[in-house]
Amino acid sequence: MKIAVVGTGGVGGYFGGRLAASGQEVSFIARGDHLRALRKKGLQVHSGHGDLHLTPVRASDDPAQVGPVDLVMLCVKLWATDDAIAAMAPMMGPNSVAVSWQNGVMAEDKLVTAFGRERVWGGVSNIAAVIEAPGVIRHNGSMARLIPGEFDGQRTKRLDAFVRACEQAKVDVHVPPNIEVAIWEKYMNLVALSSMTALTRLPVGALREDPDTRALIIQLMDEVRAVGRAKGVPLSDDAIERVMKHLDNLPRTMIASMLGDLERGNRLELPWLAGGVVRMGEAMGVATPAARFVYAALKLYANGKPADARA
Fold this sequence. Notes:
Elements: E1 2-6, H1 10-21, E2 25-29, H2 32-41, E3 43-46, E4 52-54, E5 58-60, H3 63-66, E6 69-74, H4 81-88, E7 92-100, H5 107-115, E8 120-133, E9 136-149, H6 157-168, E10 172-173, H7 179-200, H8 204-209, H9 211-230, H10 239-248, H11 257-264, H12 274-284, H13 289-298
Parallel strand pairs: 1-2, 1-6, 2-5, 3-9, 6-7, 7-8, 9-10
Antiparallel strand pairs: 3-4, 8-9
């Protein structure tokens, strides 16, 4: 397959690197020091599943140089979504498909608006990976799974082709019966994990073991489920139980990427996570007091470390 990766960070760098190493034609869209390192030294991935070093790599900051591909994988941070989608147009031919592996639940609608529903998949990525240095991706832990799906639930030839490419690359891939449910169940987990680890500056282990913080985790998940149901997503009665089971099986030391961004003074995805729950709740008439508390507590850090913050 011809694949373009827009945003060569932890998600795009890891999965794009695995697919490229297995023989797929992968082009990486990057910029700045990261792009310069990719061009000069190639892409390095450090992982418990095996390290890799790709050199040379197809890397550019100009999607027009790449041209139409079979699959465009959108992997940028949420605040960069609009610009990234606009830049993707030269790579989206009549038979191309786009998929977002981002956090949140909003990118799919934007992709559909830009390219049409027939050229968009839903997608979920489960991985903890970061840019350790320009051109270097560090995968933490063992979790590394992609969950793609057609919105109508069909197993199409193009979806099966991508599944085969992942299997060839030894990437864990799963096609769910309902991709929209899978996206919202990840959103339940992500809103709770990002909110609680950023609020407390603690990893998940302590949070799930304390009865009060565990109760707040469950309340956040319940609010996300209520908003999703109000929007017509068929989230089941046992969704929280299943998402909590996943959270309980995470390494005790795991944190959400939002805590890492907070500690580094970077911009946060807060407006699309807890903040997104608040906005959607308001629009649908669903109360979201826990998400509103998280958003209010962290919003002054949303654009990076505020000038008034203590060192």
